[in-house]
User: What shape does this take?
Amino acid sequence: MIKPRILLAEDHPVVRDALLTLLGELGEVVGAVGDGQALVEAAQLLKPDIIISDISMPKLNGLDATRALQICAPQSKVIILTAYKELAYVSLAFDAGARGFLLKRTALAAELPQALMHVLAGDRYIGLGVREEWVPVDGDRVPMQLSEM
Assistant: This one.
């Protein structure tokens, strides 16, 4: 199996470094950026399979960057990784074009591989820790994915 090409967008250096270590075990990390504007630029240049993006970032937030990526890098699938657990953010993320939504405070070492697998397969993924099931506006029910391990 070919490892996915991954681009990371995280503005906190300590969190970014920890995620880079974890992501390096799951795929080929092609870049890491610290703001949303750099994310959009890097995605166009690097053409990653997967983008892991925070919501709260300087210059351009992760949701606005995800919207822009739908136009300029449509081949890349976005997984939002955030501290925001409110369901409104889940809706905003999927409305912006994200394919996955994870919380930073969950067991990422176990959950991130599951999220990558589901999103690469074309599915949506909603991580553990989101308090309730999310029902999109269009009526398609997208259940929380629970770790199968």
